Task: inverse folding
């Protein structure tokens, strides 16, 4: 049984593809009738989010309570480096707790690491941030696009958001769901972990 409520975090200077690559696959769980009870919310750190290219996104809520959600998805981007030391965001991420699954793309892993979720785990991130991630996890994996450590899944660079979205679909809803969504997305570059 997969997650029923998915939270996507967005913040200033995120890389939009980090967000939308996973969002596109995961939103299709409901729209393609794989599980019509699955919902999602886009939660921002501000009422209006401007990504690293100037694209503006309006989140559904700002710092919404994470208690009702089953999966948290954290993208990366230049803004993640800034937020690594943002006490409000880190405290907010820590409210996620120790039981529910989390996923990150690119430098989103830096935020999960600073919040303590990677302490005894292997993880990956964008190649330019490997050194920043090292003190925040057990081991930085440099040769895989997706690292699944059970409760926490991290994905490498920007384009890995597409892989991560499909990986999470398969993990929670099965191979058939992934194939159906990948075909709908016309995305066939998915590779195994």
Result:
């Amino acid at each position: 049984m997969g997650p029923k409520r998915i939270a996507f975090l967005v913040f200033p200077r995120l890389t939009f593809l980090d967000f939308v690559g996973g969002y596109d696959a995961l939103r299709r769980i409901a729209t393609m009738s794989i599980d019509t009870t699955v919902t999602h919310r886009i939660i921002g750190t501000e009422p209006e989010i401007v990504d690293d290219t100037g694209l503006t996104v309006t989140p559904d809520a700002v710092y919404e309570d994470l208690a009702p959600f089953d999966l948290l998805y954290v993208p990366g981007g230049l803004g993640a480096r800034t937020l690594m030391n943002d006490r409000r965001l880190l405290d907010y991420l820590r409210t996620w707790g120790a039981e529910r699954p989390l996923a990150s793309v690119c430098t989103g892993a830096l935020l999960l690491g600073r919040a303590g979720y990677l302490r005894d785990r292997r993880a990956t991130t964008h190649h330019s941030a490997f050194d920043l991630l090292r003190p925040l996890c057990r081991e930085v994996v440099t040769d895989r696009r997706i690292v699944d450590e059970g409760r926490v899944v991290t994905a490498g660079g920007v384009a890995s958001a597409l892989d991560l979205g499909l990986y999470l679909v398969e993990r929670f809803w099965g191979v058939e769901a992934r194939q159906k969504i990948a075909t709908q997305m016309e995305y066939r570059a998915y590779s195994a972990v």
